[in-house]
Amino acid sequence: MGCSVSNHQPVKPIKRVEVTQRTNENGTPKVVPKSNFLMAVQSPTRRLSRSELVLQELSKQRANEMESKDPKIEEIFNFSDFSVSMKNASPSTRLGKRGNRKQSVRPGQSLEQFEFGDFCVRMEDSLDEAIIKTYESSAFSSGGYEPYNLENFCFPPRAPTQTRLKLEMKMAPKQYNMYTLIGHPNKVKCVALSPTEKYYVSSANEDLSVSMFDIYSGKEIVSFFGHEDSIISVSYSLDCKLLATTSRDNTMMMWDAVTGRQLFIFDHDKVVICCSFSHDSRFLVSGCQDMVCRVWDTKKRREMAAFSGHTGIVVCLDWAPDDSMIVSGGSDQILRLWDPRTGIGIRQISGHGGIILSCQFSAVGDSIVSNDERTIKVWDWKEGRCLTTIDVATLKRPSTKSARKLAWSITSFCPSVWGSLIIGVANDRMVSIFNPLSGDEVLSLNCKAPVYSLSSGLHSKIVFGDAYGNIYVTDLF
Predict the structure, then answer these.
(1) Is 129 helix (H, G, I), strand (E, B) or coil?
(2) Can you tell me whether residue 272 is helix, strand or coil?
(3) pTM for the model
């Protein structure tokens, strides 16, 4: 056999290269060995690109801003969807969301601002001149609340049904059915259950529209487009014919709930935060950033009355069962009851230590439930007396690794079958039902993420949405 001859040249071994850097403590050179095979040749200093120079300049500017930061910025706390100045917060809410980190403030952001959900509005300490001129002749602005006779006031009597007598004996649902629907790709901002409990409407964070879904299959039926900014709240009329939405675009819109057609736009001067239909669907009330609640006629499509008694942003409101009065609350931490026909105040109830996030009349109308981030309270509105207080610190929850501070998000009464019970939603992925007399927890529902929207039906269903976009439907038996 022949032998083959290789054409490769012999490889010379690479010598060990040593580079001297600095010196040791004894003065001898410090030797740093490099690779035995390759030695990286250091290139001369590279010239920075224009984008890198811009990033360096921005970093310097941010560092200077942090050094010159106003110490008053630390006087802002963050609770879930809310960020307000400390003078409007309770002493126990100084810690920010998810731990002890405080809310950071963007450059140019005023301390006198209020963040609700995903929008930020300026805190008002006085009414606009146009509003003052419009309502300066009213009885309220002339001084105090008008005397209101409560002695002979009563809601229409309700016959004690067998279901209600059974509720008074047990005060707890025996069974419930709960299932989950895929609703939205992100946080469910608002949800409303139809009075027939066959459909629900909901909107996600930053959505410019709301959609109607089948409550059993989750199939989308119709969408409502027309707003120019994200939706904040939604309300169903009791006859299932009308739908109302509020948005950051300073408008409240009324829709045909069957066809999705836009019927009318109610313009406001500032952001409209909440709305609610009267039980006869004749009137629609809105709560605005300018601290005024306005009552609109849905047929004549004009403003009928206004209540300017709040000293802070209006966050929540609800009609009495007979539509004789409205309860509203907000950042002034006071529940106010007023006449929707005249806009004159009837009674104010104090006792909350923080921003009132939600309020609702009971089905009978003799009590009101409301909550701030720390407590849920049940009120006898005629006497202005608190009947029950449920502190979030008393919740019995299994220990978790998360350091999230517990806080109430929203509250409501249960559907009419269990209408005396209270629903309380905290930021720990639990929806709880409480006995209003003792404050004891009788039922707890576990969710996949914290819940921020809730709607209670007229019969037996409850619908709520979480931060992951899931929609939960619960049927109480």
Answers:
(1) helix
(2) strand
(3) 0.68
